[in-house]
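Observation: inputs received (chain + magnesium ion).
Thought: call the complex predictor directly.
Action: predict_structure
Action Input:
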Amino acid sequence: MAQPVIYAENGIVIDNRARGYAVYVVDADLRPLTSAGAQNQAISALAKGMKEVLGEWHVYSLAIGVPPNTWKERFLKTEHPLSVDHVAAGLKKSAGVLFERRVYIVVPISNKLTIQLKDNGKEFLQAAKRTLTHSVKRALRLENFHVQLLEQFEEERRVWHRKFRAFLKLHPASQVELETWLRHGFYRGGVAPDSRFPKNLPAFVSSDGVIHPQHHLGIWTHDGVLKESFYNLKVIQPTKNESYQTFYNVLRVPNEIDESDASGYDWVHQVEYMDIPVDVAMHIRVEDPIAARKNLRKKRLRAESQWKEYAEGGETPPLELEVDIEHTAELEQKLRMRDPLVHVKTVIGFGAESSDRLAEYRNLVQSNLALTDLVQPPADQLRLWQSFYPWGRGISQGYEIPMDAGVFAAGLPFSTLDFGDSRGFYLGKTLNERSVFMDPRRPAQELNMQPSILLCGGLGSGKTNTAEYIAATLYSWGAKGFIQDPKGHDYDNFYKTGARVNMIRLREEGAALNPFRLGVEGVERDLLDIVFNNVTHDDNTRDIRSALIGQALTAVKAQEVQDMHTFGNALAALRQAETREVYVLQLDLLLGMMGDLLSNPLGRVLFGKDSQGQTPQDYDVTIVDTSGLTIPNGTPKTLNERLSVALYYAVAGMGMGYFSNLPQSVLKFMILDEAWTLRKFSQGVDLVDNLLRKSRSLNIVPLMLMQNATDFANWGESIDGLFAWRFVMRQNSQVETAAALKLAGLDHEDAQYWYKVFASFRPGEGLVVDALGRVQQMQVEMLPHKLLAWFDTTPKADDGW
Ligand SMILES: Nc1ncnc2c1ncn2[C@@H]1O[C@H](COP(=O)(O)OP(=O)(O)OP(=O)(O)O)[C@@H](O)[C@H]1O
Ligand SMILES: [Mg+2]
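Observation:
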């Protein structure tokens, strides 16, 4: 049967009786996995929102089988061998059918002819004539329509969009989304076909503004023959492929919901937790509270008088009547002029490639959708198939369930388990077996936010591996990177990705660095302060030292060769010219410290030569091994501690410096492993904050790794704004769990429960927050699998370190 539709454009579908339908697709809604408190708030907001959308509209929640081509398109590809391997491994993941839920909202718009009556109706008649041509023909079947009709529908589409936006994120359906919905009826339970709609439907617009579609839209959406049996439909596609579908009416939904705790009654959303594709159609009529009360009263009075008749006739009234009276009375009470009444007719539908498989699915659906009563009236399957479209006979009135807005909202009718980005690389799988894609560039490029990534988790929870996986992927997309490796060997195999690695081992007798060539304005000054001026407590002395360091630095800047030796010479020159006693004293102390540095193995690391070669343009990734540094827990006391802090700081600054020498257009990543060390001293805190705040403009994806969730406590409320993605992995204590829940945007009210969950996470598993703030439990899976072996961090006996 061809669909009775003739045209579609701009999220509007027009049927053959000049009726329009505004079609929207839901972008985002409640987060299904959040604390009960947050969920209750969201449910009550949705319930309140219902009064914005009085009238009739439909919700079609569809499990759409991802076609192989769509799956392929989700991978961002480059020529790099690692990218090629990744995509090859990822394509294998599409074996079996993958489903994605799309929630459509369809609002029927009547053809109102909203034209002012003026000039004793003359203009109206003319307008009517213009808008609907061939009126006789139209009564049977519309063939063409005036552009004004489309404009009227579009105006209404905008009006309804505003209304829904009060409580939901949604967008007018694109042409492809319209097509997917219109053709889904022939592919339910299977893979959606590739698109075949032309970008613009061929139509001819005559000079008087009449649009003549060249083909009826129904021809493009028609994909098979439906054969109805008692309890199922057989679909025979033009290719002779056969499949089966079946439909159930929903007879009852939970109605006794505690308003203060409405979570857990997600009677619609339950379909999303199944790993088979199940669709839901809901025909909704929202009645304003006053009218609703009146109607309910009428209904109750009618039922009561019926009951009386039974009773007076000496018969037992049917049980349903009593239930009805009770339920309406209850609803009447609840309504009390607040929220509107929502009348819902619900149909559950699913399909499979064989009738045996369909039988299996029946059992699964019956046992999984525990919150609803499902019934299957015989020989009504075609009508129920039709209920996924707004035309046709609709669902029988007998299945309409009046419910208060809270019950409707508690069903989470618009929620999906959508997570991650629609394109990117394959990050892994959610608990519900949904594939997760990630594009770390998207926050900066599309979402107008900082692209930073936070990874937090206990010992061996998979932070480093996850960061390395993201970094390797970005590298294969052409990014340059900087990695700070405090363990000293965790990133030793990064070169296997093909990256040209510049390995700097910053330790005694290792590589040296030059504080004056770090490439970032101001870093050398901070660094000199940490080394030379941080321990003195006397304000006066500090000021004098500060002035002297500043003068020496200015002198260095005027030289061609700039390094620690030049700095020492500048101090010596100042000493020679100085006569004031206190200044002489401080200069002598500073010069003495220069000597200490030179005789200290770690101190010598600061004496890197000024070879001008610190910016390694020829490398893809610079890894700095900082394992030789000892970071104090409080204020650094010994020289070694002070030097360690200074070097840590220098390394992070060095990374920033490298990047500022690369064009903005080059994508960069920066891993700060064990990033807590930088937050132990004020300059480090500033540097990290700076990095995070500027990451977008510098085109850097910073990855911050922390062991303790509590380390983020002093970052305050800024976490949301600072990080796009957040990976919260295994936690080993109740205190950490509470802090971890905060990081994931969840309250800590169920800390006891979550403690067990967090403690049970395997390496690479965690609660993950995506750039849009949605939370899912997921397992990171590195593709290709050889990455796991490359990135293994378990120390080996023969490593030689
Ligand atoms: N996604 C993953 N899938 C399977 N195994 C993983 C995954 N991520 C990590 N692992 C395993 O766990 C080990 C430890 O991971 P990793 O070094 O990334 O943890 P970490 O949190 O950085 O630990 P630490 O706190 O010691 O730095 C890895 O060597 C690897 O064997
Ligand atoms: Mg690690």
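Thought: report the result.
Final Answer: The two ends are 73 Å apart (CA to CA). Residues 114-120, 134-140 have pLDDT under 50 and may be disordered.
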